[in-house]
Design brief:
Layout: H1 3-9, E1 16-23, E2 29-35, E3 49-60, E4 64-71, E5 82-91, E6 94-102, H2 110-128
Antiparallel strand pairs: 1-2, 2-3, 3-4, 4-5, 5-6
């Protein structure tokens, strides 16, 4: 729930993140821009930016976070609200983290979403080593 840490691990791969605002309460949330490396024009909001608006719908720290995520885009294939559930479970070797996605916009391939989530979790693991 620290935006300075969130922006370090959440952007997948070589993307960079900027948090525009953050409110760590149920009903609050954050707005973040994820930018692709120079020359990589795959952005959903602009040529090299994905911007998301996130609302925390449930917070059961430190066990579970549920977010309602909306992509800022004019593309109807990216419309709608995606739900991300993050489950944190203590295990003998540390913490097991699971991310569940519902209502993925049809403009995002599930395999791309899964790869991005894996890269974000890899970033988090590397940060905690």
């Amino acid at each position: 729930m620290d935006p300075a840490i969130l922006v370090r691990w959440l952007p997948p791969g070589e993307m960079r993140g900027v948090i525009h605002h953050f409110d760590g309460r149920v009903g609050g949330g954050y707005e973040m821009s994820l930018t692709y490396p120079d020359g990589d024009n795959r952005g959903k909001t602009t040529a090299n930016e994905d911007r998301v608006r996130v609302v925390f719908t449930e917070l059961d720290e430190p066990h579970r976070i549920v977010e309602a995520v909306t992509f800022v885009s004019d593309d109807p294939a990216l419309a709608g609200v995606m739900t991300i559930e993050i489950i944190l479970e203590p295990v003998s070797s540390g913490t097991r983290i699971e991310m569940r996605f519902e209502n993925l916009p049809h403009g995002i391939r599930p395999e791309d979403n899964n790869e991005g989530a894996r890269q974000s979790l890899d970033n988090l693991a590397a940060m905690l080593r």
